[in-house]
TrEMBL record:
Keyword field contains Transferase: yes
PANTHER family hit by this protein: BLR2777 PROTEIN, ER-BOUND OXYGENASE MPAB_MPAB'_RUBBER OXYGENASE CATALYTIC DOMAIN-CONTAINING PROTEIN
Organism: Actinotalea fermentans
GO molecular-function terms, A-Z: kinase activity; oxidoreductase activity
Pfam families to which the protein is assigned, alphabetical: MPAB_Lcp_cat
Keywords, alphabetical: Kinase, Transferase
Keyword Kinase among UniProt keywords: yes
Protein name (Swiss-Prot/TrEMBL): Histidine kinase
Residue stretches making up the ER-bound oxygenase mpaB/mpaB'/Rubber oxygenase catalytic domain: 54-276
Length: 304
């Protein structure tokens, strides 16, 4: 119940959830969400499948930050982001576009997912240049796309293993990697892994190419120290970044100069921080869940 003029816990929950959703999804978020979840038609993935479990969980907030930090260690990928993405000038716009793409391809109608992939591929075809070392790059290069893909998949899965509400078993984790491969291949990535073991091998294969350039260090500083946030959002964001950094492999933390005086106590503190903030986000967003249609009755139609 609610008395006139009084704010209830439910009001606070909805308000917090609304602020979080608007930050992540942008001004068009409610309309996009309604279309994604209620438009009739076949989907690429069955309702409740591992990719939907992972991508629909609050652990994605930690996984997304980890993915950005890890992806920055590929000099060509980092050069493309620095020169063409506008992440500094419009970080919230970039976040909204990325989150919408993930939602459409994971939950949306198959033709909407295919259209989203086609738009991204068109953008990639136009993004080209040279790294500061003079190495030419094209964003649509299959190997470059493969790095972006495996860094994301590894980050999302590890964050979900640590902070997800419903962690997957071994078979579910392999199925998650296999399902994300559908999207990776559609985007043009080469040699996308289809199991957790293949994912680890693919990442290891990229290691000789990875190094922290000045642009990568600048990006890490921006993400961790200068986020475009203020007021009450700054503290929970700091908890998210602590969880993301702790999830990075030791070699990546060292490259990005994030090791500092690492200790088991600090690692436990970072894990506790990630747990607290993902629980808070999950609690807030659950006050206004996405609309649901009878997606289970629709045939699944993933791209070849």
């Amino acid at each position: 119940m609610r008395m006139s003029g009084m704010t209830t816990l439910t009001d606070v929950r909805r308000r917090v959830g609304g602020v979080i959703f608007e930050r992540v999804a942008g001004a068009d978020g409610p309309a996009n969400r309604a279309r994604i979840h209620t438009r009739p038609g076949p989907r690429w993935f069955p309702a409740g499948s591992p990719i939907q479990v992972v991508h629909g969980d609050a652990s994605m907030f930690v996984g997304g930050l980890r993915a950005l930090l890890l992806q920055s260690l590929h000099p060509s990928a980092m050069s493309a982001v620095a020169a063409h993405s506008g992440y500094r000038g419009d970080p919230w716009g970039r976040l909204a576009r990325t989150s919408t793409f993930l939602a459409v391809t994971t939950f949306g109608a198959a033709d909407d997912a295919a259209d989203a992939v086609a738009r991204v591929r068109g953008i990639h075809d136009r993004v080209r240049g040279k790294t500061p070392a003079g190495v030419p790059y094209v964003a649509g290069d299959p190997e470059l796309l493969a790095w972006v893909h495996v860094a994301e998949v590894d980050s999302f899965l590890r964050a979900h293993d640590r902070y997800g509400a419903r962690p997957l078993d071994r078979a579910g984790r392999d199925e998650y990697v296999r399902q994300t491969a559908v999207v990776g291949r559609a985007l043009g990535a080469a040699g996308v892994p289809e199991s957790v073991a293949e994912l680890a091998e693919r990442i290891d294969g990229f290691r000789p190419q990875l190094a922290a350039t000045e642009a990568a260090l600048d990006t890490a500083h921006f993400i961790l120290r200068e986020p475009p946030l203020g007021g009450p959002l700054r503290a929970p964001y700091g908890l998210l970044t602590a969880g993301a950094v702790e999830l990075l492999p030791a070699w990546a933390r060292a490259e990005l100069r994030l090791d500092g005086s690492r200790s088991s106590a600090r690692a436990r503190g970072a894990r506790a921080s990630g747990t607290v903030v993902t629980h808070l986000i999950r609690w807030a967003l659950a006050a206004d869940p996405p609309p649901r249609a009878d997606a289970g009755a629709w045939p699944v139609d993933p791209p070849a």
